[in-house]
From TrEMBL:
The gene is LOC112217396. It is a single-pass type I membrane protein. It catalyses: O-phospho-L-tyrosyl-[protein] + H2O = L-tyrosyl-[protein] + phosphate. It is an enzyme of class 3 (hydrolase). One of its GO terms (cellular component) is receptor complex. It comes from Oncorhynchus tshawytscha. This is protein-tyrosine-phosphatase. GO terms for molecular function: protein tyrosine phosphatase activity. Its main location: membrane. Its EC number is 3.1.3.48. The lineage of its organism: Eukaryota, Metazoa, Chordata, Craniata, Vertebrata.
Length: 1681
């Protein structure tokens, strides 16, 4: 600030007077500009030159400092703020800094242009003021201000209070100072978030599970900009729980486990697997979502947990049970077979002893195509199965596989076995001959077309077996007259044979031999014969003689019989048969006759056409004669002549024929004839003609004679005193001289050498022909001939003819000059002027003097042709060369050319052609040099000179093969050597020469290191000489490379998304991918793609698919496939999930998901209070979940799972269990009108109690209910007040819950009474007691009087009707009374027996482990009387469905048992052994009306039943029962016992025996054996269930003893006793009636009123077996079940 001097003056200017001013300056408020202005004005005034004088007033003042510039805050902390600024204009002394937060203030001076304000409060807004101060430290300039917040302080004690999978709760303590809000920031390194809050805690949400986050908390000042120092903390969020733990691949010793982490990530997974039973535990650590465990046991359930680990957090999954695949069972063995069942056994699978939850699936179907019977399957936990309801004699393929936990299956074990066929029926045997019998039968029931039948019988040489496929057979080669026992067994397959059926047959004895007869006279004939060669002393003979239907039979033991008193002249039929045991041999027959006499001196004389017959009369009586003439055994004429005539003439016969004339003597019905034979004479032949003449013979012929049959005559030819006989109408007269005249005659010769008249003629022979006529020289124009004449006779000449086409030259010479050699002459001649290459015929004929010609001799010759010219050879192809030449001079149209080829064939060949100027020579060897020679040939093959040349044939192309051998880098070219020769080969690949000249011995070449998936074309060229030939191009391709592995990306219910690696090294070529997906239903689908990812659409839900990908290259070649096997689509969710609640269990039901598969199962979990209580897997659509807490809320989730563990979407339902009722409900009634209730707190949870009370004797709806709520604080109870005195009240207590209330608990209580009421009640009770005593006395007196008036029939009643005993003498009347009104009395007795014994315990029988041992679920043995076997390991080993039953002699005299099942046969025989049973009674057939009633537990021969071996030693089948003997051996002790088996077979199904006699007799038979062998051991009796028929049989035994020893009958008491030991003994009312009928029949038989002991039960009853008679059936009517 400047010091200013001011002058105050008064100034008058131009008449104007200025007012004087006093200027008062407030220095501190004057601006610098004003100060400067005033100072300038003053200075101006001081320098005024006007000369005016002003009075001056001087004073000293300072100006204000200027405002500071650019005030800024350079640094802010929680407790300080640093200010800085620029100096103001002008001067200043210092700066005054002032600050305030509105409450507290501070100031400080500084000479500097900056200042650090300290000791501030954090997070508070301060107003900072900076003012320049003048040197007087008083004058200040204008201030400059700035407002700023201090930084808030750091928050304190930042902690994480709660961490979940997606959230973190942060909390902290307020920082010192102030703050406006807090900024929370978090990051996981990739994503970040922030949020502001005014609170000291914050809940950070939407985090990723299992991730490490850095959390930062910063205090923010009120300007929302100024922040304090941050506080950080690093924490992991909790990882999510791994879910969907499944086994993606499993084996018998391996599990591959995968799981899903739906959100977030983890550091790693800890996978644990354990099995407590095996004491096995193992763990893996992995960062992937897959773990593999090996070395596991097959068919075991392992508990698997997967723990997600992130930082310090571990989230363990729910325990999941995963199972290994079971091993297959051991080999199948058929231990027993029947006509309708097969018992198959197997051994425990390897390494699976002790495995839990193991069962076996047994399925079977008909062998072959499986048609005709559907596949049947069942399951069992035992090592055997009885396949029942099978067709008899049928072969089945049986499949057994182990079913392990979680429905896992092993591979299957197979066996093909057959049931037993049923036996043949209606077997009969008929003798056919002396060595054969015919067996015939009806096919068995359910016969199959592959059945065969084994026929067995015994001959002297030993047993004979024969197999046939028809229902009949003929047995041959038997002994005559011998009896044979035949057995016929139906056979379906090896080891599958029906029950043998037997029959008997006696063969016929042999026939008698040499049956002869001797006519003793006209009325007697003696028959005789020889014994048959098999004669036995038991043989006799039946001799039969018959005539006109009249038969006489005579039986004799000797071999001769004489018939007398026969009619003369008659014929009789006689036969003789051998007889043994009414079986007759074939008959030996003959005819015996008495004969009339024949005519005498029979004569027949004939001509050419007639025959005259004459005879003398025979002796004896003749009625007439029959004369018959025969020709060739055919009657020509027949005449009957009376006995007055002795001749006859037959006319118009054929000449030269033999005739037989028969003259028969007819006497009554008999005829005796005599024959005579003669012939007619033949006719003469026709005229003689010369057919041919030679030098030594004459061939003549003549016409055949008229009216004569060819072959019935011959001819005789005469010449030169010679005679020739012939059947022909010609003859050759031989050995004649040439040129000689002969006389010849011929006659016809007929039968008996009768001859006709003679025919004659004269003829000559020919002269000799010339010989050796040949050419002596041939040229192109001349031919020289020469010949010889072998004889010379006077008059011989020669005629020579030369012929060329139509030109003929004849030369006749009488004498030809020649050289004579003996009688031969040699002659020659040269014919000239002929044409070349022409054919000429030369004929030379010898002539005799009379003109008879010798046989001409002819030769033909060609003149030679000229040679060809200009021969040229041109190659045409591999086997053909074209030859050309010029025709020769004087060419003839008949010329041919002979072409000889050499060098290119295996041998020189000649070829003839008619071509004029060339020819194609074919069939040459390819690729070979040939030499050709051509010569001209005339028609007779005469040749001219030859001309030659040479040439090559072309080589053939090879037959080339190109193939890749399945390789992706190699191609092989192979060829076969072509026909012919090849000098070299060359090979081209894709038109590029890939080889040098290859030797002709090479046949293939390979090309290596080629590219995959490319097409290649090869050509092979052959070379020979200057020629070559290329093969047809052959194209193939290398295989493409295989794609990479398949990755499953996603699965839905209808699709699977897959991805695979691209095939390597496949650039620059065309290829695609063939994706194939095949479900187990075999609906194969394919798709072709060019990319490496695809979604398989339209798939079936819950279905496993085998997916493969192959690279498809050129030519459609496919690489090896890569596979992803059994990838299963997600199944659909279950439908309509519903819940039925109970107190401690809940029943879940649901409908099958859409497109349900049999392999599906359901994974069920239930949650309570957010915790998984348990889980299970089931195959059914319902599930009972027990062990729940009553009155609690549960959430149930049902998830469909496929066999490989693929899950569908879960379906959930929440509901509460029913509240549990109270118990120990008690009441206390003080002498007040109220009731005090107390009870024990019910199980589970409850929401209070509802109590009601109403008068017991009044309807509840007419009363006011007392409704209130009880509780259990501190004890459970409630007081019901405002009731009436001395009144019965019904009180109810109902537990209330979150769902359904409990069942109502009811209690009746009486309120208290006062004293007056008590006395009145006491008196009343006393009076009533006296009256009651008097009433009882009167009743007793009345009953005694009544008893005296009843009938004499005594019925003894014991302990509330446990017995109805009747004396024998009274039983008849009792029986009639009870039987009256349709058996009404007996029906009432039987009705009273129904509840007897039923309250007894059946603990062992109802145990789950023993259920499969019971044939019927309503016939279970009582615990008190059941038969207990020894225990061999399991506590259930002692169980068998049987009870000890008291008999007359002992309380354990009998064991009543059910018929053994396939699974209990071993226990049955163990019971027989352990109880020392020696008598065994069976009252049922194994099969009745197509139902299996009992397993056939005994063997045909020997069979093992664990430690017991049973051998059938004998079997005696009778009409109504069969008796068998068994040897039963204990293999451990080697002890053997005998057991007799009494099998009653006459008890009809659904009925009772037809008569009481049958069962009573059978009982006597059994009792006899029991008394001898079973006095100290029980007798086992069984039917099917072991109650109906079994109880009836035991009751009959006791009744007979009662009648015989006690003279009492107590049917009711007997059944009552039996039913106290086994339920349902004597099961039906009809059996009860039958027992009473037995009793009356026995009594009547003893008294003589029923000697036959026959009871006709015409209404056979419904008897069995777990089926009650219909309620609507009348007492005397019956209904079949």
């Amino acid at each position: 600030m400047s010091l200013i001097m001011l002058t105050i003056f008064k100034y008058v200017f131009r008449g104007t007077t200025f007012v004087s001013y006093i200027l008062t300056l407030n220095v501190s408020r004057i601006s610098m500009l004003l100060i400067i202005y005033i100072e300038c004005m003053v200075n101006t005034m001081n320098n005024n030159d006007s000369g005016d004088l002003f009075p001056k007033y001087n004073f000293l003042a300072r100006t204000e400092p200027a405002v500071i510039r650019n005030l800024t805050v350079t640094e802010i902390t929680t407790s300080s703020v640093s200010l800085s600024w620029i100096e103001p204009l002008g001067n200043r002394s210092l700066f005054r800094i002032e600050w305030t937060d509105g409450n507290t203030s501070g100031s400080q001076n500084t000479p500097e242009t900056s200042f650090n304000v300290t000791a501030l409060t954090p997070g508070v807004q301060y107003l900072f003021t900076v003012t320049a101060v003048a040197g007087d430290n008083t004058t200040v300039g204008q201030s400059k201000t700035v407002s700023k917040y201090t930084k808030p302080a750091v928050i304190r004690n930042l902690t994480v209070t709660e961490i979940t999978t997606s959230s973190v709760s942060l909390s902290w303590i307020e920082p010192l100072g102030n703050r406006s809000l807090f900024r929370i920031e978090w990051t996981d390194g990739n994503t970040s978030g922030s949020q502001n809050t005014p609170e000291t805690s914050y809940y950070v949400t939407a985090l990723t599970p299992g991730v490490q986050y850095l959390f930062t908390v910063t205090a923010v000042a009120g300007d929302n900009t100024t922040v304090g120092q941050s506080k950080t903390v690093s924490k992991y969020t909790k990882p999510e729980q791994p879910v969907d733990i499944v086994a993606t691949r499993r084996g018998t010793s391996q599990l591959n486990v995968t799981w899903t982490l739906r959100n977030g990530s983890v550091e790693y997974y800890s996978v644990n697997i354990f099995n407590a039973a095996l004491n096995y535990r193992s763990s893996n650590t992995t960062q992937t979502r897959e773990a593999s465990f090996t070395g596991l046991q097959p068919g075991r359930v392992y508990e698997v947990t997967v723990t997600a680990v992130a930082g310090d957090f571990r989230n363990q999954s729910a325990r999941v049970q995963l199972a290994t695949n079971p091993n297959p069972p051991g080999p199948l063995n058929i231990t027993e077979r029947t006509t309708s069942s097969l018992v198959v056994q197997w051994t425990i699978p390897g390494l699976m002893i002790g495995a839990q939850g193991i069962s076996y699936n047994i399925s079977y179907q008909l062998n072959g195509t499986g048609l005709g019977e559907r596949n049947q399957s069942s399951s069992t936990t035992s090592l055997s199965s009885n396949l029942t309801s099978l067709s008899s004699g049928t072969c089945y393929t049986i499949t057994v596989k182990t079913m392990g936990p979680q429905n896992l299956e092993s591979t299957s074990v197979y066996a093909s076995e057959c049931t037993l066929p049923k036996p043949v029926v209606n077997l009969t045997a008929t003798p056919l001959s002396n060595s054969s019998c015919k067996l015939q039968w009806t096919d068995p029931v359910e016969v199959k077309n592959y059945y065969t039948y084994r026929v067995q019988y015994i001959k002297a040489t030993g047993p004979v077996l024969k197999t046939v496929s028809t229902n009949f057979t003929q047995v041959n080669d038997l002994e005559p007259g011998t009896g044979y026992n035949f057995t016929v067994t139906s056979v379906a397959a090896t080891g599958s044979e029906g029950t043998p059926e037997r029959t008997f047959c006696n063969t016929k004895p042999n026939v008698v031999s040499n049956l002869t007869f001797e006519g003793l006279n006209t009325t007697a004939i003696r028959l005789s014969w020889l014994k048959p060669n098999d004669h036995k002393p038991t043989y006799s003979y039946l001799v039969t003689i018959s005539k006109n239907g009249s038969v006489v039979e005579i039986s004799t033991m000797v071999e001769m019989y004489t018939f007398t008193n026969l009619t003369p002249g008659n014929c009789y039929n006689c036969s003789v048969v051998t007889v043994v045991q009414d079986v007759k041999s074939d008959s030996t027959e003959t005819i015996i006759c008495t004969k009339p006499a024949v005519v005498k001196n029979l004569i027949a004389i004939g001509t050419t056409t007639n025959m005259s017959v004459t005879w003398y009369r025979p002796m004896g009586q003749v009625d007439n004669y029959t004369v018959t003439i025969y020709k060739n055994n055919v009657m020509e004429d027949n005449r009957t002549i009376t006995n007055n005539y002795l001749s006859v003439v037959f006319q118009n016969l054929k000449p030269g024929k033999v005739y037989v004339v028969k003259v028969a003597t007819n006497s009554g019905p008999l005829t005796e004839a005599l024959n005579v034979t003669n012939a007619t004479y033949p006719n003469p032949p026709g005229g003689i003609m010369v057919v041919d003449q030679t030098t030594g013979s004459i061939n003549i012929s003549w016409a055949r004679p008229l009216d004569m049959d060819l072959g019935q005559y011959s001819f005789s030819v005469f010449h030169l005193d010679r005679q020739n006989l012939t059947e022909h109408n010609w003859t050759l007269l031989k050995n004649l001289q040439s040129g000689t005249l002969y006389n010849i005659s011929v006659v016809t010769v007929g039968p008996f050498d009768y001859q006709s008249t003679v025919v004659t003629t004269a003829k000559s022979t020919r002269p000799q022909s010339v010989i050796r006529l040949i050419e002596a020289g041939i040229t192109t124009t001349n031919v020289t001939l020469v010949w010889f004449q072998p004889e010379s006779k006077p008059g011989y000449t020669f005629r020579v003819e030369v012929t060329n086409q139509s030109v003929t030259t004849n030369t006749t010479m009488k004498t030809i000059t020649g050289v004579q050699s003996g009688s031969n002459y040699t002659t020659n001649i040269t014919i000239t002027g002929l044409q070349s290459g022409s054919n000429y015929t030369f004929t030379v004929t010898t002539l005799t003097g009379d003109g008879t010609m010798a046989t001409p001799v002819t030769v033909s010759y060609f003149t030679r042709p000229f040679a060809v010219s200009g021969l040229v050879a041109s190659t045409v192809n591999t086997t053909t060369v074209n030859l050309t030449w010029t025709k020769p001079p004087q060419y003839q149209s008949g010329y041919t050319y002979r072409i000889q080829t050499e060098g290119c064939m295996s041998a020189p060949t000649n070829r003839t052609t008619e071509t004029g100027e060339g020819d194609l020579i074919s069939e040459l060897t390819p690729g070979t040099r040939c030499t050709f020679s051509v010569s001209v040939k005339a028609l007779n093959s005469i040749e001219g000179e030859s001309v030659s040349t040479s040439q090559y044939t072309k080589p053939e192309s090879v037959n080339m093969f190109i193939y890749n051998n399945g390789s992706n880098s190699t191609i092989v070219v192979h060829w076969e050597a072509p026909r012919g020769n090849v000098e070299h080969y060359i090979v081209y690949l894709n038109k590029v020469l890939f080889s040098d000249l290859l030797n002709s011995s090479i046949r293939s070449t390979s090309f290596l290191n080629l590219s995959a998936g490319r097409s290649y074309t090869a050509v092979v060229t052959t070379i020979s000489g200057s020629f070559n030939a290329s093969s047809e191009p052959g194209t193939t391709a290398t295989y493409p490379n295989q794609p990479g592995p398949i990755l499953i990306l996603e699965k839905t219910t209808s699709s699977i998304s897959v991805e695979w690696g691209e095939a390597p090294l496949m650039t620059n070529t065309t290829f695609s991918y063939l994706v194939t997906y095949l479900s187990t239903q075999l609906n194969n689908k394919t798709v072709t793609l060019t990319n490496t990812r695809h979604t398989l659409p339209s798939l079936s839900s819950g279905t496993p698919y085998n997916i493969s990908v192959a690279t498809v290259g050129v030519l459609g070649l496919q690489s090896e496939k890569v596979w992803s096997s059994l990838v299963t689509t997600r199944p659909e969710s279950v439908q309509s999930l519903s819940v039925v609640t109970a107190e401690e269990n809940i029943t879940l039901t649901w409908n099958k998901p859409v497109d349900h598969k049999p392999s599906y199962h359901y994974y069920v979990i239930w949650i309570n209070s957010g915790l998984i209580i348990s889980n299970t897997t089931t195959l059914m659509e319902d599930l009972i979940i027990d062990q729940l807490v009553p009155g609690s809320l549960y959430n149930f989730t049902v998830t469909t799972e496929t066999a490989d563990g693929t899950k569908g979407a879960p379906v959930s339902n929440s509901i509460c269990t029913n509240a549990s009722p109270v118990f120990n409900l008690k009441c206390d009634s003080p002498n007040d009108p109220k009731v005090i209730l107390s009870w024990t707190k019910p199980k589970g949870l409850n929401q209070g109690f509802q109590i009601t009370a109403y008068e017991t004797n009044q309807p509840p709806q007419d009363q006011a209910h007392y409704n209130t709520s009880g509780d259990c604080t501190p004890a459970c109870g409630h007081t019901v007040s405002d009731l009436k005195h001395n009144t019965d009240y019904t009180l109810t207590v109902t537990t209330l819950g979150c769902g359904s209330s409990s069942t109502i608990q009811t209690l009746t209580c009486k309120t208290g009474v006062n004293a007056v009421i008590g006395v009145a009640v006491g008196v009343t009770i006393g009076v009533f007691a006296i009256l009651f005593i008097i009433t009882i006395a009167l009743v007793i007196h009345w009953r005694r009087q009544t008893k005296k008036d009843t009938s004499d029939i005594q019925i003894h009643s014991m302990r509330a009707k446990v017995s109805v005993a009747v004396r024998v003498e009274d039983y008849e009347a009792y029986y009639k009374r009870q039987k009256a009104d349709s058996n009404c009395g007996f029906a009432e007795e039987f009705e009273d027996l129904k509840p007897v014994g039923t309250a007894q315990a059946k603990t062992s029988a109802m145990a789950m482990e023993n259920k499969s041992k019971n044939r019927y679920n309503n016939v279970l043995p009582y615990e008190s009387s059941r038969v207990k076997l020894s225990i061999h390991g399991s506590p259930f080993d002692d169980y068998i469905n049987s009870n000890y039953i008291p008999g007359y002699n002992s309380r354990k005299e009998f064991i009543a048992a059910q018929g053994p099942l396939p699974v209990t046969v071993n226990e049955f025989w163990r019971m027989i052994w352990e109880k020392n049973v020696q008598t065994l009674v069976m009252l049922t057939r194994c099969n009745e009306q197509g139902r299996v009633k009992c397993e056939k537990y005994w063997p045909s021969e020997t069979k093992h039943f664990q430690n017991i071996t049973v051998t059938t030693t004998s079997e005696i089948p009778l009409e109504d029962w069969t008796i068998r003997d068994f040897d039963v051996k204990n293999v451990r002790t080697a002890e053997t016992r005998s057991v007799r088996h009494f099998h009653f077979t006459a008890w009809p199904d659904h009925g009772v025996p037809e008569t009481t006699e049958l069962l009573i007799n059978f009982r006597h038979l059994v009792r006899e054996h029991m008394d001898q062998y079973s006095r100290h051991s029980p007798t086992v009796v069984h039917c099917s269930a072991g109650v109906g028929r079994t109880g009836t049989f035991i009751a009959i035994d006791r009744l007979i003893f009662q009648i015989e020893r006690d003279s009492m009958v107590d049917v009711y008491g007997t059944i009552h006793d039996l039913r106290m030991h086994r339920p349902l003994m004597v099961q039906t009312e009809d059996q009860y009636l039958f027992l009473n009928q037995c009793a009356i029949d026995i009594i009547r038989s003893r008294t003589g009123t029923n000697v036959d002991l026959i009871y006709q039960n015409t209404a056979a009853l419904t008897i069995y077996e777990n089926v009650e008679p219909r309620k609507d059936t009348a007492k005397n009517g019956y209904h079949n079940t």
